[in-house]
Amino acid sequence: MRKTLIAASLLSCLMVTPSFAAEKPVKASAQTQLDLYATATEAWDILNQDSRAILIDVRDPIEIKFTGFATPTRIHVPWMVADTQRWNDKQGWAMVKNTNFVQQVTDKLTQLNATTDTPIIMMCRSGSTRSAPAVDVLAEQGYTNVWTVVDGFEGGKLKEGDSKGVRALNGWRNSGLPWSYKVDRAVAWHPAK
Question: Is the pLDDT of residue 158 over 70?
Fold first, then answer.
């Protein structure tokens, strides 16, 4: 009987805690305090293994409109937003930090009854400059189970061929995971007023 209880306890832990982890990213900008990294397919597994898991998209709404939206996303709050009043010669409109990010995300997590150990998965375009720092700010708020999707929504750039430089390697969209160009209005971010 005792062995059965121990085995059942271990099995329940395995169902909630993934038995994998993507490699720690080489780029410092993609690393997090919590060291919890998942590929898009591993993030999908987390979402399917634990009904409490929450996928948060931290991309700008304009970006989502033209590249697509992971349909299991439960929270959309951008880490940075396009500032149409400022121009950046490298990328067009300058990107500025969403100063309300922490409050907006924590409010939505509260609405979803998330606790500090709820599995939370942060996703941006490529898994570095937005999802990783978003993980760190949630860690500073006391959340302990926050993952970053290392290949993001669009994935990595192809290194050769006619589509060289296009983000068509791995990532959520290129891994056959559920996504759509239609954004769920109930999940979509709206600027603070």
Answer: yes
With contact defined as beta carbons under 8 Å apart, do 26 and 150 qualify?
A: no
* 81 alpha-carbon distance from chain centroid: 16
Helix H, strand E, coil C: the string for 127-185 is: CCCCHHHHHHHHHHCCCCCEEEECCCCCCEECCCCCCCCCEEECHHHHCCCCEECCCCC
CA atoms within 13 A on the CB side of 107: 9
| Burial of 43 (C-beta count, 10 Å sphere; 0-12/13-18/19+) | buried
SS3 120: strand
In a domain, 31, yes or no: yes
Tally the domains of the chain: 1
Which pLDDT score is estimated for 175? 94
Question: What number of other Cβ atoms are within 10 A of residue 92's Cβ?
Answer: 10
> In this structure, is residue 6 part of a structural domain?
no
Say which residues have a Cβ less than 8 Å from residue 33's Cβ, sequence separation at least 6.
Answer: 135, 136, 139, 140
pLDDT for 159 equals: 87
Residue 9 in any domain: the answer is: no
Query: Bridge partners of 30?
Result: none
> Hey, what amino acid is at 105?
V
Query: 133 lies in which domain range?
Result: 21-180
Give pTM, 2 decimals. 0.84
Q: Note whether residue 124 is domain-resident.
A: yes
What is the number of residues in the chain?
A: 193
